[in-house]
Write a structure and sequence with these properties.
- This protein is mainly beta.
- The protein has one helix and two strands.
- The protein has a two-stranded antiparallel ribbon.
- The N and C termini lie far apart (29 Å).
Length: 43
């Protein structure tokens, strides 16, 4: 696994939006910075 360092760009990956559509993170931050939040679902 690649070591991440604070302040460097996140590696490109694919995530799902709230509708279940796949999005490449590199397409999201082309226009502006983004915040990516991970939530753990219990239940």
């Amino acid at each position: 696994m690649m070591k991440l360092v604070v302040g460097t760009a996140a590696p490109n990956m694919t995530a799902k939006d709230v509708n279940g559509n796949s999005l490449a993170l590199s397409t999201l931050w082309q226009a502006q910075p983004i915040v990516l939040s991970f939530l753990r679902h219990f239940g």
